[in-house]
Amino acid sequence: MTGATIAAEVVLAALANVPEDGGVRRAMLIDNGIRPEALENPGARVQVQKFANLLRDAMIELQDEQLGYGVGVQPPGTWTTMAQYALDAENLGDAIRRLSRFYRFVPWGVETRCEMLDENTNFTMRPANPENKFSPYLYESFLFYYYQFCCWLTDYRIPVLAIGFNFESTSYSEDYVGVFSPQRVDYLEEFSFISFSSRYNSLPIKHTAISIKKMIEHANLVLFNQYLQQARWAEKVEQVIAISAFQNNSITSVALQLCIHPHTLRRRLKNEGRQFAEVRDKLRLKLAMNQLKQTRKSIEDIAIELGYSETSAFSRAFKRWTKLSPQNFRDQSK
């Protein structure tokens, strides 16, 4: 979900269970200002606000907040009930316990658990019946809502230590994972999960019954817009670094181009749960993966373009990010 748009593959996944008979799906897209034919173009993207409205309409059409991906239906109002239940929590940790407990009583075929350790808090999802196989979209969408709801409750972008999935990476994984900006991403795990430092469990709940009433009127739009607003400064940093082609991309030079003091930029990134080096390196990874997939440029040339003085340094960093060497990644992407 880079910037204010979202990959067409995510849109198609969200609508997979909306019937095509009678033109229901097509009409829904057109009503929300999305040309159905445009979604077929490689690299097509959709504005986040249009996608949020589309999700709302699809949930109403299917009468299912899980869009047909669970074992049973989650009728409209399920999320509202959970949100109101979590609002009375003492702090974020208590709210997370309530959320995981609530969804264990919802008959959707998924078991949610919250594990609070001394250092990390892990929220996990797995099929209640091992024989059930669910679409990646079910896990991806629910973890997005879970994370953004935690950030909304506390008015704080919580840094994610790790996120993992019990399936292989998808064509839009890079786009999706960018929402969380995790330090680590794992695939083919035993279960899907998200993990952050347990010190954030003590964050107070910042919202009231009045503000939650406004949020649940259009939760999709509120949570998507929240992500965009929280990521604002990180995105500005990305834009400056990309324009400068990774030349003079220290925090001092970037802050100068943004007309603020480096300490101010560092503080604003911290408020978003980000660090300058992490933002720069995530951008490097995204561009490196695109170059390796879509061009025949040598690994040495790609390393130079991304600001590395040595190819070996780029290769080490890429392997640390993906667990694959640049060449192995390119070979697997063919």
A few lines on this structure:
By secondary structure, the protein is an alpha+beta fold. Helices cover 52% and strands 10% of the residues.
Question: Would you spell out the secondary-structure blueprint of this structure?
Answer:
Layout: E1 5-7, H1 8-14, H2 24-31, E2 45-47, H3 48-62, H4 78-87, H5 92-104, E3 110-116, E4 120-127, H6 136-154, E5 162-164, H7 173-177, E6 184-186, E7 192-197, H8 209-217, H9 219-230, H10 232-243, H11 251-257, H12 262-271, H13 276-294, H14 299-305, H15 311-322, H16 326-333
Parallel strand pairs: 5-6
Antiparallel strand pairs: 1-2, 3-4, 4-7, 5-7
Helix pairs in contact: 3-9, 4-5, 5-6, 6-9, 8-9, 10-13, 11-12, 13-16, 14-15
Q: Can you describe what's shown?
A:
The chain has helices at residues 8-14, 24-31, 48-62, 78-87, 92-104, 136-154, 173-177, 209-217, 219-230, 232-243, 251-257, 262-271, 276-294, 299-305, 311-322, 326-333, and strands spanning 5-7, 45-47, 110-116, 120-127, 162-164, 184-186, 192-197. The strands form two sheets. Strands 3-4-7-5-6 form a five-stranded mixed beta sheet. Strands 1-2 form a two-stranded antiparallel ribbon. It is an alpha+beta fold and 334 residues long. α5 runs antiparallel to α6 (136-154) and α8 crosses α9. It contains 16 helices and seven strands. It has three domains: 5-62, no CATH class; 78-202, no CATH class; 232-333, Arc Repressor Mutant, subunit A (Orthogonal Bundle), CATH 1.10.10. The model has no long low-confidence stretch (mean pLDDT 88). The protein is globular, with a radius of gyration of 20 Å. Residues 235-332 form the HTH araC/xylS-type domain. It holds the Pfam family Arabinose_bd.
